[in-house]
Amino acid sequence: MLTLSGITKNYGERRVLDGVGFDVAPGRLTGFVGGNGAGKTTTMRIVLGLLEYEGGSVTLGGRPVTVADRRRFGYMPEERGLYPKMKVLDHIVYLARLHGFTRADATERATAILEQLGLGERLRDNIEALSLGNQQRAQIAAALVHDPDVLILDEPFSGLDPLAVEVVAGVLQDRAAAGASVLFSSHQLDVVERLCDDLVIIAGGTVRASGPREQLRQQHSTRRFEILTGADIGWLRAETGIEVVDFDGGYALFDAADDAAAQRVLQRAVAAGDVASFSPQQPSLAQIFKEVIR
User: Fold this and answer.
1) Residue 195, beta-bridge partner list
2) Is 144 left (phi over 0), alpha (psi -120 to 50) or beta?
3) How far, in Å, CA of 109 to CA of 62, rounded?
């Protein structure tokens, strides 16, 4: 378990992180979301030992993170950092060799991860000849080639088309399933919501919400319900304690003032005709994000 506790960081007199703390668990994907300047990249660089900090701790398995531990970390920065004149395979092999692998092992590992990421036909191309999306895939390969125990990715889905997003998401899920702790930031809230097991929302240098995705949904849920019937339910607009959000004949999305109001709607709908479905609606990550950063 990678654990951040009470991390504070100042740039001069400006505090950019204030008591930041959360866990990144093995075998789970943790989505790290926040607006520009919220503190995501600074937090990641502190975990990696690239920035000093004024207070708090970063631990792995309950003890301070060491240089040796960080050799088992994989990192993909938001900025592109590959050598443009190097061939794709040669570059990833070179990085694997820096981690101590023999040339044969490094070549095998690099080839496997590049093929998994959909770059099998571009192994002999120079990095600069790749599209921006494929350069992004190559950067992800660079972070993964040594099979890290902790994987930290800053905006890994930036610049990827929908098919590439699916490829990269599948690779990250495989790494988590193999036991890695995976922390990734992204502005694409729909991707984070679909992919992650745990969420951390940061704003203004403080963590506003964190925990398992479904737990956060329950904590921030409202009394919003969806109903689909075989009869017109225009009467719903006049119901006490009900605010209709969307309506179309026998379908409605509505907010209820309390559970009793929701049950009255259900009972009246059942009495009037067939009810195909009636269910509470969980908030989206975008809705939770807007709520907690206010």
Assistant:
1) none
2) alpha
3) 31
- DSSP bridge partners of 57: 5
Phi, psi of 55 (to 5 degrees): -155, 160
Distance CA 59, CA 63 (A): 5
User: Does residue 284 have a pLDDT over 90?
Assistant: no
Q: CA–CA separation, 254 vs 226, rounded Å? A: 7
Written as one string, the DSSP assignment of 174-241 is HHHHTT-EEEEE-S-HHHHHHH-SEEEEEETTEEEEEEEHHHHHHHT--SEEEEEESS--GGGGGSTT
C-alpha dist (Å) from residue 286 to 25, 115, 223, 236, 283: 23, 33, 17, 27, 8
Please state whether the predicted TM-score (pTM) of the whole model is above 0.85.
no
| Homologous superfamily in CATH for domain 2-218 | P-loop containing nucleotide triphosphate hydrolases (3.40.50.300)
User: pLDDT, tens digit, for every residue of 31-47?
Assistant: 999 999 899 999 999 99
Mean pLDDT for all residues in the chain: 93
- Which pLDDT tens digit goes with each residue over 115-131? 999 999 999 999 999 99
Instruction: Tell me which amino acid residue 44 is.
Output: M
Return the CATH fold of 220-292: Alpha-Beta Plaits (3.30.70)
For the chain, give every domain's residue range.
2-218, 220-292
